[in-house]
Amino acid sequence: MRPGARDRLGGAALALALAVVGCQRAPAPAPTDAADASAGTQPKSAAAAAAPALAYVPNQRSGTISVIDTDKDVVLRTLSAQGQLGTRLQQVLPGPNGHLYVIDAQGHRLLELDTAQDRILRSVDIGENAEGIAASPGGDQFAVCVEGQNQVMLIDPASFAIGARIATQGQAPEHCVYSPDGALLLTSNEGSDDLDVIDLKAGKSVGVIATSGHPRGMAFAPDGNTAYVAQEGVGVVDVVDLVARRRVASIPAGQRTAGIAIARDGSRVYASNGGAGTVSVIDPAARSTLAEIPVGQRPWNPALTADGKKLYVANGRSNSVSVIDTATMKEIKQIAVGELPWGVVIAQ
To answer: Which candidate, 264, 217, 208, places its Cα nearest to that of 236?
Structure first.
């Protein structure tokens, strides 16, 4: 975040749910052999043996990451890398082999964390005031939005080195999201109230799209041509047509709308409203709000489970994560986490 910016967490978790690489699920066990069967051993089902999907919550001020079991909705463990994560954690990104990529804004670093051993494996200097990170659809590239430098850094996960730096035309790019085909990268520029459209093949910004005011979290619809963008300054969700390169509608949400998550089939859009302490459930086809769900204080970046049955949202001022049943559209639990949780990311 920019120096002197007001206390806030940011929003864009939904873009992450669309770009997660790797998986936290254990493989199904091999079938038992005939000898085992004759001895009365019964093979276990893959469902019983599979580990639960894990949700990761970076706690900014605590310098920790809470790991939540999304089956039982409890904190399994808290990662700290022996206190080396810094006390200004931003977005995290799950990777393969139980690794986690973490933006440490205090140390100006992108970290690769081994979650099993709770230790830092690698780091790369990304300069001051980075916040958002996204993975390409193929997982062969990371994009880091460096708000304080008005640029995007493209990082090779294999070498963990910066491969390119792309200047944005807009100011203070906070979050970024890849298009489903991997051809474009969008940045939400909170300093200039617009989005940069970056052509990754050309390696440059090819235009900006004006938004309603103070864009934060973003998510692509399944069609790949429509993006939904939270607008904190005016409490709406903008609908952006990437083919026409313009905003085509604004859907009312709540006060200080910041985070976005979208169902995989595109049938629902969820917007976290930091000022209202609610999550709006939006019907994108009708471009109307179906419900406004009370949660904790200052809810920011949300994430959906793969089956779309539960939505998790970080409550920054409540130091908790709300669990929402998407069928009933009600909060079913709050899970205590660390201080000032930035958002939720689920390893699919």
So the answer is: 217
Cα-based angle 131, 135, 138 (whole degrees, multiple of 5): 175
Identify the helix (H) or strand (E) that includes residue 40: none
Q: Which residues partner with 217 through β-bridges? A: none
Answer yes or no: are the C-beta atoms of 21 and 94 closer than 8 Å. Answer: yes
Q: Which of 287, 289, 341 is nearest to 313 (CA)?
A: 341
The correct answer on CATH 2.130.10.10 for the domain covering 13-25+51-257 is yes
Instruction: Tell me the C-alpha distance between 29 and 49, whole Å.
Output: 7
Cα(129)–Cα(43) distance, rounded to whole angstroms?
A: 51
End-to-end alpha-carbon separation of the chain, Å?
28
CB-facing half-sphere around the CA of 37: CA atoms within 13 A: 6
**Contact status, residue 250 vs residue 237, Cβ threshold 8 Å:** yes
Residues belonging to the chain:
348
* Percent of residues in the chain assigned helix, strand, coil, to nearest 5: 5, 50, 45
Question: Is-contact 83 106, C-beta < 8 A?
Answer: no
pLDDT digit string (tens) for 18-62? 333 333 333 333 433 333 333 334 444 444 457 889 999 999 999
Q: How many CB atoms lie within 10 A of CB 71?
A: 13
Q: Is the CB of residue 133 less than 8 Å from the CB of residue 145?
A: yes
**DSSP letter assigned to residue 37:** H
pLDDT in tens, 266-317: 999 999 999 999 999 999 999 999 999 999 999 999 999 999 999 999 999 9
Q: What is the Cα–Cα distance from 145 to 261, expressed in whole angstroms? A: 19
Give CA–CA dist 119/85, Å, rounded.
9
